[in-house]
Amino acid sequence: MATAAGAAAALFFLLWWILQGEDNPWIPAGLAAIVVMLVATSARQIVMRRALARFVLEQNEARHGRRQGGSQASTVANLHSASLQSAALRELQKQSAQADATESAPETHREVYQLCTDYLVSAEEVLRSASLSTESRVALRAGQERVRGLQKHHLLAWARDESLALTREAQQRVRLHEKIETANRALDCIDSALKVYPEEEELRQSAGAVHEFITSSRVAHWIELAERAVFKGYYRRAIDCYRDALFFLTRDKPAPDREAAAERITREIDLLRARLATQRAVDSAPEKTATKRRQSL
């Protein structure tokens, strides 16, 4: 990856120098550098997946050799599997450190979480062997504990970063249904992590924040429609919009800030009803006067 980064930087400056006569030469140069980094990242993932597949294949061959080669071959195969597990653990810790050291995409944490899951499954298969030495068994169990910690860390990091990015994207949306749809995607990420760690308070707080954003977006939408209706003199429509905002505001658990907002909306509804009654009285006054004149004539 360091070599790819150096090659991308060299290609960027080279193309920039070649295209100096063009408008905005940094755009094609930057695109070329990005393509180089994307290709390098894809190649890196392919290599990691092939290494993991090779590890699983060698482990299967070791189990097959144990069944055919007797107790001596079984011991050798188990030692080989234990050494492979140790190498896989070192590589996994390296991947974890790289994911934490840089501002990587949330999907990187998800990939490390999946690698942790694969490691735990393969380590459990090795531990089922009766001929595994006590020292190797203790080392494998210690490695499992470390990987479980990494697994939890990276799943929480993925859920946090992915939901935060989707919530920020939802805030940039203009239409209400787009805001809600994007925020629900953030909730899906948090819910998938909650299925694995249901007692994690951080996930519950993140879910509560996203729910609060959805509620505030709906309430703000209906209040805006109500204010537009008031400006145009459509008091009945404004009352209906305020009532919709009040519905979404009071549907969930009450909170002090929500209670204050609900009281303000209720006062606006009462004021609009008073205006509507006054408007009706003013509109009906000429009709009553005309009726009295006709009766007197």
Could you outline the blueprint of secondary structure elements for this entry?
Layout: H1 2-18, H2 26-101, H3 106-127, H4 134-172, H5 176-196, H6 201-231, H7 235-250, H8 256-296
Helix pairs in contact: 1-2, 2-3, 2-4, 3-4, 4-5, 4-6, 5-6, 6-7, 7-8
Q: Count the E strands.
A: 0
- Measured between the Cα atoms of the first and last residue, the distance is 100 Å
Low-confidence stretches: 66-80
The chain-level mean pLDDT equals 80
Indicate the proportion of strand residues: under 5%
- Could you say which overall geometry the principal axes of the C-alpha atoms support? elongated
SSE string = HHHHHHHH
Number of helices: 8
The helix fraction, in percent, is over 70%
Radius of gyration: 32 Å
What kind of sheet is the major sheet? none
Structural class computed from helices and strand pairing: mainly alpha
Brief description of this entry?
The protein is mainly alpha-helical. 89% of the residues lie in helices and 0% in strands.
